[in-house]
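Lab notebook, design round three. We kept the backbone fixed and only want residue identities now. Task for the bench partner: fill in a sequence for the structure below.
Input structure tokens:
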């Protein structure tokens, strides 16, 4: 059965990119799948060690999950540090993965900047922990934004190397299944993971620069729409969004070379669950002075109920804390099933 896993870091305000690239997909997937959604707090100390209000940040991500429509009774919502098996499997994966693999990660290069020698070892090993997050549940499907594609390819490489390095032990203990990876039949303990990236806005771009990803760490607040922004702020940010002077084209091809226009059309399509083609069929030939207010109204109508519910949930954190505690217990039990087998496969006495 498909098992869905994904996580969001508690590192500042969630924005529209996190919502459209990840959380909105989490909500849609819960209909037909078993889902595990995690606030990845261990990841949040890789780039910045000390946070002013980490408990509040963790709660706000969990609140965003619930306010967006994730059902914590049917599915599992928890914070990563409550399940130590993630860190345990990550250590093993640190020994499976190669330093060269980590050095090639574009997110590491971007976040470490020029002074790479001074980045934390945790930032370099980030993808190894991400692989552990997913594979400790032997999850098969991972909804993420386009920026995480490379990390998911690395997750597949780590799983495959583990499966090959320990093939004899996996067989001897009677674990694993026969699968085909590419052309090769192998006996696998960890399944190959499929990223779920599609949709009209797989990478939401900055409102100030259509060639840069919308991101929590952009110093300009005008570059992003935060999930906690009020209606006036959302409208102002969309009004001030950078655009070119031309009218919208009628065909998607006409968006080529117009990154800001393409971004706003993609956002509109994602927010209204339609395609860019359909948006352009409606707005092609119109000026941004017409399109922007329509986009602002749409964004407010989708986001404001979520914002309202998040505020309500954050007023009294006991409800969120109970959800996370119960979710943590359920996740721990499932992760431990894998870890008992992994320890046995490797040969650790337990
Ligand atoms: N701009 C984006 N478009 C689409 N998806 C995005 N995601 C992030 N930015 C965009 C997706 O959101 C999920 C959670 O992201 P994260 O919190 O784990 O970390 P991040 O990618 O580091 O988030 P930011 O906002 O981009 O932070 P900084 O500024 O630190 O780089 C992931 O599925 C991610 O793909």
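Proposed sequence:
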């Amino acid at each position: 059965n498909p098992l869905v896993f994904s996580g969001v870091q508690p590192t500042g305000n969630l924005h529209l990119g996190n919502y459209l690239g990840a959380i909105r997909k989490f909500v849609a997937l819960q209909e037909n799948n078993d889902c595990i959604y995690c606030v990845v707090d261990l990841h949040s100390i890789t780039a910045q060690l000390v946070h002013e209000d980490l408990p509040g940040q963790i709660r706000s991500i969990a609140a965003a999950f619930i306010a967006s429509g994730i059902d914590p009774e049917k599915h599992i919502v928890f914070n990563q540090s409550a399940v130590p098996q993630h860190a345990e499997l990550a250590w093993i994966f640190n020994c499976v993965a190669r330093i060269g693999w980590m050095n090639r990660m574009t997110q590491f290069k971007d976040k470490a900047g020029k002074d790479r020698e001074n980045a934390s070892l945790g930032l370099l090993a980030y993808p190894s922990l991400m692989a552990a997050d997913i594979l400790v549940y032997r999850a098969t499907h991972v909804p993420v934004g386009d920026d995480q594609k490379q990390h998911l390819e690395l997750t597949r490489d780590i799983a495959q190397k583990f499966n090959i390095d320990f093939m004899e032990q996996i067989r001897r203990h009677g674990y694993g299944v026969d699968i085909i990876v590419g052309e090769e039949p192998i006996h696998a303990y960890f399944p190959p993971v499929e990223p779920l990236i599609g949709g009209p806005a797989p990478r939401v771009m900055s409102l100030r620069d259509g060639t840069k990803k919308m991101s929590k760490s952009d110093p300009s607040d005008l570059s992003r729409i935060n999930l906690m922004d009020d209606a006036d702020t959302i409208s102002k940010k969309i009004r001030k969004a950078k655009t070119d002077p031309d009218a919208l084209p009628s065909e998607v091809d006409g968006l080529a070379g117009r990154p800001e226009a393409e971004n706003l059309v993609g956002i509109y399509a994602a927010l209204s669950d339609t395609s860019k083609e359909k948006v352009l069929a409606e707005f092609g030939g119109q000026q941004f002075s017409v399109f922007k207010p329509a986009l602002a109204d749409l964004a407010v109508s989708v986001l404001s109920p979520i914002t309202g519910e998040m505020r309500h949930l954050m007023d009294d954190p006991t409800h969120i804390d109970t959800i996370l505690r119960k979710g943590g217990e359920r996740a721990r039990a499932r992760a431990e099933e894998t870890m008992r087998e992994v320890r046995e496969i490797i040969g650790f006495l337990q």
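Keep this in mind before ordering anything: The domain at 221-314 is CATH 1.10.240.10 (Tyrosyl-Transfer RNA Synthetase).
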